[in-house]
Design brief:
Elements lengths: L12 H30 L17 H30 L12 H26 L2 H4 L4 H4 L14 H8 L2 H7 L5 H17 L22 H9 L11 H5 L7 H7 L8 H5 L1
Length: 269
């Protein structure tokens, strides 16, 4: 998701969008590269027990493909950003800078995340339709052993569809501007976490009523292995509601292993 502050509307649109793209690209690749070096390189043996089981392994070709796709995704993200900027400048959004309490901002962030989650779930599930999947979403699913660089590795059509949720949100929801920056940070963190390939969320979250509904790296990694379920972005809510959650998710999350993909040596440990 890319968000441009409408406060920049006084500048030429092209300059704002180019500046936003450069900022987004630098921030994204800096964060993802640091996470990759720490978890996948420095932590390769240190975090071995947190590694999510998979039958595939990422190779250099996958990394090159993911980085190329990410640049396309970030470029197309400017369409959503530009749309919000143009709509705000013409007075057609409900975004505002009125004084808002921290609690109200937090409530708007939660509400916008749920809206984004439902938007993502619906489009994501549609993109898995057999007549559509191989033309669009298959690009993302070429990464079976997901890495931090898989986070924004999308087909151009998918990049536009998934990033466009901010346009109706800006039109329909009287959101405070302060919520937009937080949503951007949360969105990036969630995407990287979902494609981390390692599970660091403690097992006890399944015993906490609210936390158990949040997404995890295991939840999304299983989706990359089994295309039939786990379509949610931030939460398990919609998968539970519509019956698309993969049945082995909680078992794999708790055991941090899966008999279907665990090697003989790993079982013996």
């Amino acid at each position: 998701m890319q968000v441009v502050s409408p406060l920049a509307a006084a500048q030429p649109l092209w300059l704002v969008l180019v500046s936003n793209f450069v900022t987004q690209a630098i921030a994204y690749f800096t964060v993802v590269s640091i996470v990759y070096v720490v978890v996948w390189r420095w932590g390769r043996e240190r975090f071995r027990r947190a590694r999510i089981p998979t039958t595939a392994r990422a190779d250099r070709a996958q990394f090159r493909r993911e980085i190329t796709n990410t640049f396309v995704t970030l470029l197309l993200g400017m369409l959503s950003a530009g749309s919000v900027l143009a709509l705000y400048a013409s007075g057609r959004t409900r975004l505002h800078n009125n004084p808002t309490s921290p609690l109200a901002i937090a409530a708007w962030i939660v509400g916008a995340l749920l809206f984004n989650d439902l938007w993502f779930y619906c489009w994501h599930r549609l993109l898995h339709h057999p007549r559509i999947y191989r033309y669009v979403h298959a690009v993302h699913h070429r990464s079976i052993d997901v890495t931090p660089f898989s986070s924004y590795s999308f087909h151009a059509v998918e990049a536009v569809l998934l990033g466009a949720w901010i346009v109706p949100a800006a039109i329909w929801l009287p959101m405070p501007m302060a919520a937009l920056g937080a949503l951007q940070v949360i969105g990036l963190a969630n995407n990287v976490m979902s494609h981390l390939g390692y599970e660091f969320v403690p097992r006890w979250v399944l015993r906490v009523p609210l936390l158990r509904w949040t997404n995890t790296a295991t939840f999304h990694s299983l989706h990359h292995r089994d295309l039939r379920g786990n379509f949610g972005l931030h939460s398990r809510i919609w998968d539970k509601l519509f019956g698309t959650e993969l049945p082995d998710y909680e078992r794999v999350f708790v055991t941090r292993s899966d008999d279907a993909t665990t090697t003989r040596d790993e079982r013996a440990e």
